[in-house]
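ok trying this again, last paste got cut off
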Amino acid sequence: MRLKRLTLHGFKSFADKTEFSFEDGLTGIIGPNGCGKSNVVDAVKWVLGDQRPTSLRGKEMLDVIFNGAEGRPPMGMSEVLLYLDRPLPDGQGLREVTVGRRLFRSGESEYLLDGRAVRLKDVREALMDTGLGVGAYSVMEQGKIDAVLSANPEERRSIFDEAAGISRYKLRRKEALRKLDKAEQNLARISDLRAEKQSRVRSLKIQATKARNWRETAERLRAQQCAVALVESRALGRRLEALEADLARAESDVAEAGRVRDESRAALLDGEARSRELGQRLRELEELRAKVRGIEERRRHECETGERRRVELEALAARGREALEALAGQTEDTRAAVAELEAGLAELEADKRRLDEELPALEQRAAASRRAHRDAAAEREGL
């Protein structure tokens, strides 16, 4: 197998897509310090499946993505493609094999084999017996030759096995032995489960017998329940007929009650209208009673005023008679004054007679007011 091309895009310092062609006669890549020679070696190891960030001179795997520079933003993906020429099994020519790896800044990663997304295991199986791989010696770094020279016999034998092309079969033998061990463990587990199940067969037979008995009993119970349900359905049918007759009678009663309710509602509406009329009449009578009370109060006040005037006149007449009696024993020189007093008394008596004449009319008016008050009270009580 021969390395043909190497394409890097976004890997470490290779922001732009860069392709290295390894034609005949190319023996090395030279350049000043910091130009990215070691990054090419890291790209080869990374695309072959290296999972250790420290071997790629980084702290984490995302460090292989171009992190930006002056005037260049960071990239979101790193991709490396390795093109190999592999001889065909029949020796009729070469077949180009493409191995690729992509890593996104979100942490997602994928491996490519001839443009198809595959597993890392598929890539390792495709490169087995070719000398390519993470642990193989096809990529010689600084200190790798010292590690080969100081390797123990077991490590040297792995190198010879890889060169002889038998490491593939050793790996398959190891996987087959691991599968056989797992199958033996499964057989032992099956034997244990079989012994455990056999110990439960007798109890399961007893449970099966109980289940059959329960099924027969359940069938007999179901038949009896059907018979009981048939009898109950007939009884319920007769009861349903009776209930339907009762329902018909109840519906007729409901219709009659509805008619009575309508009549009662009409009577209630009439009563409410009559009540409103009586209320209006009562309010009118209350207004009339208030007016009669006002008239009665005015007439009572007039009677009280006339009574007080009569009492005053009687008191005045009594004082006049007393004065007249006192003056009767006086001398002749007071007769003129007595005559004057008699004249005043005559005037007072004339006023008294006039008031006495007015008093019956006032009493009649007061009596008429009391009768009107009694009539209004009787009419109110009647209402």
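PB: full thing came through this time. Residues 130 and 249 are 104 Å apart (CA to CA).
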